[in-house]
Amino acid sequence: MNGDNARDQTVGSEPAARQRLMAFAAAPGSPVKVMGTERRLCVGPPGNLFVFGGVLFGAALAVLEDDLQRPVIWSAAQFLGPVRPDELLELHVEVPSSGRTVSQARVVGRVNDRLVFLVSAALGAREEPTERTWDRVPDAPPPEDCQPARLWPHSQAPDTLLETLEMRIVPGEFAEVEPTGRLAERSRAVFWVRARQALPIDISLLALFADFLPYALGKALGGGLGGVSLDNTLRVVRRVETEWILCDASIQAIHAGFAHGDIRLFAQTGELLAIGSQSMNAWPPTTRG
Least buried of 54, 115, 185, 192, by fewest C-beta within 10 Å? Predict the structure, then answer.
């Protein structure tokens, strides 16, 4: 967990704008952005593919940063319905307030007349000298010394999002286990993740990886599947160049059919990049048939 090549990224830089998992275009004669929802942005079993929530969240935040030329500080997404492959997603940007250092903005996601998500965000920066991080990076071996994750291969359709990502599980107490059919004693998961295609660490990638929190829910449920996210919240601390991101995810509680948890994203050089949280549907533990 050491190195000396990390450096801060510039928001809205040209390389970050060109290299993303998703691509946008302006609707003719309108400030609305449109995005094609290709199969490679989707997850799910054959016959029930949908765009990964972290992709939608990341797309909305990337559009806001591109439009306002300010970095995201805090953001929250509320998912209202699925987006299917090959649909045309419209991203409607609204900026109710824009001050000297902070803008308050939102994105409304629509497919035709169907409302599919809402995203609110605060964007900006202040030149202040005070800086300290209390959260510490977990003690973990480098990704090359960790086992590749299975990433739910028994349920995923081919040529979809998870094939474009690589995930490695920290061994020991965080190792993957076969489904047990009962709740686990511990609900924490620590793992490395990266895009197989070299991509800069921009807001869309942070939002994508923060949505891997349901992986920890799978562990909490005894090694079964995770849950469907109701929301995503992302607080961005800083951005540095890093090939891999170390994710430290935990489920705090499950009650009344819903799970609640958080995730911290660290660079290979140890810097805390972002903090995510969400609530999810939680199904009873099962064993794999």
Answer: 185
Measured CA angle at 158 (ends 156, 160), to 5 deg:
80
Does pTM top 0.70 for this prediction?
Answer: yes
- Number of helices (H), then strands (E), belonging to the chain: the values are 4, 15
pLDDT digit string (tens) for 39-71?
Answer: 999 998 889 999 999 999 999 999 999 999 999
Q: What torsion, rounded to 10 degrees, do the Cα atoms 153, 158, 159, 162 define?
A: -10
Q: Where are the beta strands (DSSP E) in the chain?
A: 25-26, 33-36, 42-43, 50-51, 72-79, 88-98, 102-111, 114-124, 147-148, 165-169, 188-195, 231-236, 245-255, 258-267, 272-281
In the chain, what is the straight-line distance between the N-terminal and C-terminal CA atoms, in Å?
39
Domains identified in the chain and CATH numbers: 14-125+142-281 (2.40.160.210)
